[in-house]
Design brief:
The protein has 128 residues and is mainly α. It is built from six helices and three strands.
């Protein structure tokens, strides 16, 4: 049996998926208008959506002579895959090393630290 699917996404692919997750099914023009960052040509967005469809990331339907795209992957699936890949590749699978790195190099608020403590306590309770 195969494990969970791994998603290796480029920056633009992830940004397009984020638009579709936030705004729901969208045309190429709607995706183009809602993309964060540097504006991209319509043809660039259309080409990327076609490539993403070939990879099974999105699917289109036709409505009034326009293609409307929707995601075939969930935020949770992609987040899980990318986070697991990051921990495996950069930290040899060590969650502790990954968290330690983030705590050393990112600003962390007191409320975030308290939230992390609660999450750790909840996980300890589930493992008991």
């Amino acid at each position: 049996m195969r494990g969970p699917r791994k998603y290796r996404l480029g920056d633009l692919q992830l940004r397009i998926l984020q638009v579709l997750w936030r705004h729901g099914p969208s045309t190429v023009a709607e995706v183009q208008a809602k993309l964060d960052g540097q504006p991209l040509a319509y043809t660039t967005v259309a080409t990327m959506l076609r490539k993403m469809e070939d990879r099974g990331l999105v699917q289109h339907t036709q409505h009034l002579r326009r293609f409307v795209y929707r995601p075939l992957v969930t935020v949770e699936d992609v987040t899980r895959s990318i986070a697991s890949d990051l921990v495996d590749r950069l930290f040899a699978g060590s969650i502790a090393d990954a968290v330690s790195h983030l705590l050393d190099y990112r600003q962390v608020s007191r409320s975030e630290l308290e939230q992390l403590e609660r999450l750790i306590e909840q996980r300890k309770q589930r493992k008991s």
